[in-house]
Hints:
41% of the residues lie in helices and 20% in strands. It is built from 10 helices and 9 strands. Helix 1 crosses helix 7. The radius of gyration is 20 Å and the shape is globular. 35% of the residues are buried.
Amino acid sequence: MELVLIGGVSGSGKSVALAALEDAGYDTIGNLPVALVVPTVDHLAHASEESRVAIALDAKGEPGLPGIGATIDELKARGWNVRFVFLDTKVETLVKRFSETRRRHPFSSDERTLIEAIDHERGQLAEARLLGTVLDTSELPAAALRNWVKDFVSVDPSKLTLLFESFGFKHGVPLDADLVFDVRCLANPHYEPRLAPQTGKDADVVAFLETQPEVERMYGDIYHFVASWLPDYARDNRNYLTVAIGCTGGRHRSVYLVERLARAFAPRYQVLRRHRELG
């Protein structure tokens, strides 16, 4: 019996994530208060024999998702495999989304500006955020978010999942990163006219980077750091570890290293890969 709970700040894409899970065969419910999660799941399990359920949590009526930790523990005790994904988004992206859609933020008022409302909600959700697997949806197209959510539910939640993510520093560091490595010091294929339109997945870019001794040294350092610390993260009862690797634009060096590291760790761990700027 699988249950996915979706929380996060307003405007972060919870409805898109819920739709992706519906497409994946989950019975979905939107905007449910935390207090109603257990009775609702009980009803679905007994009345309709549903075994795959996804619920987007409502943080408007109950700011901060009170009791979410106890609710997750209770559901696990009843035999459900529970995963809680928390969608987070940068302030500037949220401001842009609310401005473009002309939607009113649920915590805005005559005395509180949009940015103040966003900061207020984020503060209310700070404790709940620590209990979930954080997914940064800043500047993320809806199609990419749907794919990321489907990847999230495709892995075994009882085992540690190692996620390698490439990104460009000029677009900011991912909010969901646990470890961040800066590879901007490496030779940049972007300055080679033939390679600039390609990515770190393409054979010509790979060949260029593999001629650089510094690239090999950087790869070895990141590999050994992650490999040596992974057992400690696993003992800390983590089920997700996100390793973010950034270059300037997030299209060449970081993509190459993510692909290579993912291949190296895949035989021993559950591995996912993301390329934020290729979304």
